């Protein structure tokens, strides 16, 4: 019975040794010149304005979540588009209700000012 596990353990050893060997070989053959200029953050040739650890406003995350929510809408519309003829007018009514709910949500977010970037 333990002989059946030999391919598993061989694969496990290879899965551990290959990345380690690759990292060691890369460290040995790569050029190393830790100059201060090389350690700076690169922002399109412009000196960094601030540290990268700055805080983002909560509004940024709200807009990102709203984008994801309205982007996922296309995932739900795809199966409907594939079976459009089979669903008939019932499918059209379902999608109309679905899109109406999304539009109401979008208008609510717009009135709350969630989409204003300033």
Strand content: under 5%
Helix content: 55-70%
Mean pLDDT: 82
Beta-strand segment tally: 0
From the alpha carbons, calculate the radius of gyration and give it in angstroms: 27 Å
Class by alpha and beta content: mainly alpha
- Low-pLDDT ranges: none
Tertiary shape: flat
Amino-to-carboxy terminus distance: 67 Å
Query: Helix count?
Result: 3
Major pleated sheet: none
N-to-C SSE string, H for helix and E for strand: HHH
Report on the structure:
This protein has 118 residues and is mainly α. The chain has a domain at 56-118. Helices cover 66% and strands 0% of the residues. It is built from three helices and no strands. The radius of gyration is 27 Å and the shape is flat.
Chart the SSEs and their pairings.
Layout (H helix, E strand, L loop, with lengths): L5 H24 L28 H25 L1 H29 L6
Task: Put the structure in a nutshell.
The chain has 118 residues and is mostly helical.
Q: What would the keywords be for this entry?
A:
118 residues, mainly alpha, 0% strand
């Amino acid at each position: 019975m333990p002989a059946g596990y030999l391919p598993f353990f061989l694969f496990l050893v290879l899965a551990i040794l290959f990345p380690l060997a690759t990292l060691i070989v890369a460290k040995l053959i790569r050029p190393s010149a830790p100059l201060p200029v090389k350690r700076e953050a690169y922002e399109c040739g412009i000196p960094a304005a601030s540290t990268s650890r700055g805080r983002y406003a909560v509004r940024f995350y709200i807009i990102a979540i709203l984008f994801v929510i309205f982007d996922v809408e296309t995932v739900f519309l795809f199966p409907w588009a594939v079976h459009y003829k089979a669903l008939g007018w019932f499918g059209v009514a379902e999608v109309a209700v679905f899109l109406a709910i999304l539009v109401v949500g979008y208008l609510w977010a717009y009135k709350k000012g969630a989409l204003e970037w300033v």
